[in-house]
Amino acid sequence: MVLVSEATYNSCHEFLKEQLPKHFHNVRLGIICGSGLGGLVDTIDPTTKVEFHYSDIPGFVTSTVSGHSGKLVFGYLGELKTPTVFMVGRIHLYEGYTPQECTFPVRIMKLLGVESLVVTNACGALNPDFKVGDLMVINDHLSIAAMTGQNPLIGPNLESFGPRFPPVSDAYTYALRKLAFRAALETNISKDDIHEGVYTYSSGPMYESRSEARFLRQIGADVVGMSTVPEVIVARHADMKVLGLSLITNPVVTARGKDAKKEVLNEMGIETVVDDAVDTELMKANHEEVLEASARRADDLQRLMTRFADLWAKEYSH
């Protein structure tokens, strides 16, 4: 296991401070852009933009997934010009990195002064009431990977960031969830298109089997994805406020599917059996549809996040 030392975090922080204009030495709002959601960075004032490729930042690993360009971008967001840092593309466990490497940028955000972190993602819907293109504000999570040992806090605790045993029962800040709903409604997103629910983290990279999907739904999950929770765990360990926002890009297949035995009995004339199950082969998820759904909702997400930043700045100005 690759563990990250406190010295590595500090040297990365010092590198960025040396490269950044002084007005970005204390950035209070951070946003992580999920699959296909990198266009959120277009909401910032282009005249204030400063960006770094992950490959140029000490301690950062590179993002290898389509839809994740791999840049750390700084700029002023919204009418109130809130200094903001964006992760344009995240790092995933399934790319071969450790949980500590995947969450390294979150602690760098903390060192840069980030107080509130917005974590966005593309995900599949388990809840049958959710449709493609809907948004979901996360109010809790199920972390299958963390519960089975893939936890970013495993290893020596870095006391300078947080305690050995942090609670996550309050992981998603209630006040920020309210601001997100207000921002959505004020930017003309229909109340029927934005929900609140439980996000499940699965390490991926495969999409879930039908039985796994039914299990997740039965234990309380509304959506499932391959990111977000490790970043949230590290953010809460460092006492950052967190908002999680999911874009529904595909329905998750939970149907039991066609019965092969019944089909053969019919074909051989042994027995006439009615099989009205759906053909699950026609419902398979793929990454292309994730990116397409993200692109269709891009403008709405940009307006929502710009308005959220202004509401946040008014609420947390000091």
TrEMBL record:
EC class of the enzyme, as a word: transferase
Name the UniProt record assigns to this protein: Purine nucleoside phosphorylase
InterPro entries, per database record: Nucleoside_phosphorylase_d (IPR000845), Nucleoside_phosphorylase_sf (IPR035994), Purine_phosphorylase (IPR011268)
EC number: 2.4.2.1
Record GO biological process: nucleoside metabolic process
Residues annotated to bind a purine D-ribonucleoside: E208, N250
Alphabetical UniProt keywords: Glycosyltransferase, Transferase
Any one annotated GO CC term: cytoplasm
Residues that hold phosphate according to the record: S35, H68, R90, I91, H92, A122, S227
Pfam families attached to this UniProt entry: PNP_UDP_1
GO molecular-function term, one example from the UniProt record: purine-nucleoside phosphorylase activity
Annotated function: The purine nucleoside phosphorylases catalyze the phosphorolytic breakdown of the N-glycosidic bond in the beta-(deoxy)ribonucleoside molecules, with the formation of the corresponding free purine bases and pentose-1-phosphate.
Family membership noted in the UniProt record: Belongs to the PNP/MTAP phosphorylase family.
Pathway field: Purine metabolism; purine nucleoside salvage
Gene3D superfamilies: Nucleoside phosphorylase domain
Record lineage: Eukaryota, Fungi, Fungi incertae sedis, Mucoromycota, Mucoromycotina
Domain Nucleoside phosphorylase: residue ranges: 28-263
UniProt source species: Circinella minor
